[in-house]
Amino acid sequence: MKKIENWKIISLFIMLYDALSAVFAYGIGLWVRFDFNYSGIPAGLMNAFLHFIPIYIVVLIVTNIIFHLYRCIWQFVSFDELIRILQAWLIESIIHAVCITVFFRRMPISYYLIGAVVQAVLMVSIRFAYRFYLKFSENRKSFLNGRDMKNVMIIGAGESGQTILRDIKRRYEDNLRVSCFIDDDTNKWQRLVEGVPVVGGRDDILQSVEKYSIRQILLAIPSATAEQKRDLINICNETSCEVKILPGIYQLVKDEVTIANMKDVAIEDLLGRDPIKIDMAACFEFINGKTILVTGGGGSIGSELCRQIAAHSPKQLIIFDIYENNAYAIEQELKANYPQLNLAVIIGSVRDSRRVNQVFKTYRPEVVYHAAAHKHVPLMETSPNEAIKNNVIGTYKTAYAALAYGCKRFVHISTDKAVNLTNIMGASKRLCEMVIQTMDAISKSGSFDKLPLVHAHKEIGFAEMDEADILPEAAEHARIAHNKSRTEFVAVRFGNVLGSNGSVIPLFKKQIENGGPVTVTHPEIIRYFMTIPEAVSLVLQAGVNAHGGEIFVLDMGAPVKIDTLARNLIKLSGFKPDVDIKIVYTGLREGEKLYEEKLMAEEGLQKTENDLIHIAHPINLDTDHFLSSLVELANASYYNSDNIVEIVEGIVPTFHPVGKNGQSDKAIKSKKYKEVAAGIV
């Protein structure tokens, strides 16, 4: 025999209850009409009642079934269920009045009114009784275990805040209790949201946290801008409370506003700007069906480039990286996620011209995203020749191969450290931009004979090497490429990337996990930040919009104090800065600047269709002189010259290396720093 489910037993019980409540309700109506005297009820009225009530019970149960009143989970009963109960009751009351009057006899008006009202009360009460019981149990539990309850503040007394409040009330097992709301709308102050007071605006957060012993703050304003969220989070971080945030308005649209969807505040939420929005459809259309080469494809930016490219059906994706572990990791990930992807993973160095040219000759990439580079500022200060070999000469060799083998577009990934430089890493990236500018000019003019063959090195040096010994086909390939199509060379310049291998964020997190201290070089140091997806979207956009020679610059909003970033990260980890986790200032490192800039004053900016993406006007460059200087620089770097910094200084006019002690007090207090610092987040 099949076992009857528990909910069906409950439904049968409620059906029986509804039948008895109908008899009781209208019997009471008749009894009250005749002054609570049963014997005073006329026989005709009593007979009409007794003969009609069985019919009415059938009508009532059928109507309730139609309105799904026997399939509800009554512990979650809400306003929607109440509406359906009242709709069913109204229909039942009308049917009762019409049918008993037409088919039996007219009853007293009080009979209809009292019976209908009593029946409504009984129908609603039984269905909400369980909900009230659970609420009573919750309150009793809260009273008995008050010390275990976590008092919660919700910022945002709108629809999302109310929905989260209801969800918390249902999830009584979580031991959460909403004590107050915060909202900047003064019309909501001193009013109640389901019994919870709206105590004031953001200026009242700190006071209310102390008053109500708040332990958790929920930011429930999905429509708030990044800047608004940042301001609120900064206030909340002045408390010791755990802070969670509703990610975005899409949660409200999709009806996904629950306590479970609240996330811990991420460091990205503190950047103070909305995410960069790019026409990715155009980017992916550009990628589709093309052979794409990503150098440095195992790095932070390179691997994300590979992920996004792989997802949009390239003809072939070639990953080129010197670090085999990184390359292997992204290879396995892409094979697992995109089994149909035509993928080639090649280990090699951009410093090796023969290897680079072999890759271009074999695969003939149409688009190159050049992400291979040494990026660590302090380490490059102690190994300047390596920065030049890898970043500058490696970029030249890769760009030369792209030009020689008919690549259509070459996108170089630069950095804001290439602006008004004080360190060799930044100088090397500025030299890369100059390489890109020169290569684009050569591509447009067709003057391939001007390009030096800086492709290998021997003890005798570059000048004495025979062209045929270096690259037999180079010149011919360059001429062929020019006859078919020219290569468009562009650069993309942006700031620090959150979560990258060289970012301060992973370092801070590790230091916090170890109990501190968190090390910051200088209390006033500031940087521009962006996320890896934003960086990659900009790179891809540059690949679409390039015409050759541009330097694309991202407007990254206001810069962020590294000290503030460290303190916020400590607070978000549940600790107090300088109390639980110490912050130690270690002093500016070799070559480190207090601030970064997005462009040099001489460059200027040109707007694009995207308000957050600009194009820097390239500075006039004597290509002949630069190319001859590049040969000297390459030769010096491969001989590991002690004078490499001075040589770079002579080539890059904006390069002003700092001493071992970092910037002077004069530089720290300079007008330029104050201008940049005025917009600090």
Q: What average pLDDT do the residues reach?
A: 78
Total count of domains = 3
Q: Briefly, what CATH class of the largest domain?
A: Alpha Beta
Q: Unreliable segments (pLDDT under 50, ≥5 consecutive)?
A: 248-257, 456-473, 660-681
- Taking the alpha carbons of the first and last residues, their distance comes to 70 Å
Shape: elongated
According to CATH, the homologous superfamily of the largest domain is: NAD(P)-binding Rossmann-like Domain
The value of Rg in angstroms is 36 Å
Number of helices, where a helix is a run of at least 4 consecutive DSSP H or I residues: 24
Keywords summarizing the entry:
681 residues, alpha/beta, Rossmann fold, 24 helices, disordered C terminus
Structural description of this entry:
It contains 24 helices and 22 strands. The strands form 5 sheets. The chain has a 9-stranded mixed beta sheet, sandwiched between helices. The model is unreliable at 248-257, 456-473 and 660-681 (pLDDT under 50). Helices cover 48% and strands 13% of the residues. It is an alpha/beta fold and 681 residues long. The radius of gyration is 36 Å and the shape is elongated. The chain starts with 5 loop residues before the first helix and ends with a helix. The protein folds into 3 domains: 6-141, no CATH class; 146-265, 3-Layer(aba) Sandwich (Rossmann fold), CATH 3.40.50.720; 280-496 and 529-556 and 597-661, NAD(P)-binding Rossmann-like Domain (Rossmann fold, 3-Layer(aba) Sandwich), CATH 3.40.50. Helix 1 (6-33) packs across helix 4 (109-144) and helix 18 (504-513) packs across helix 20 (562-572).
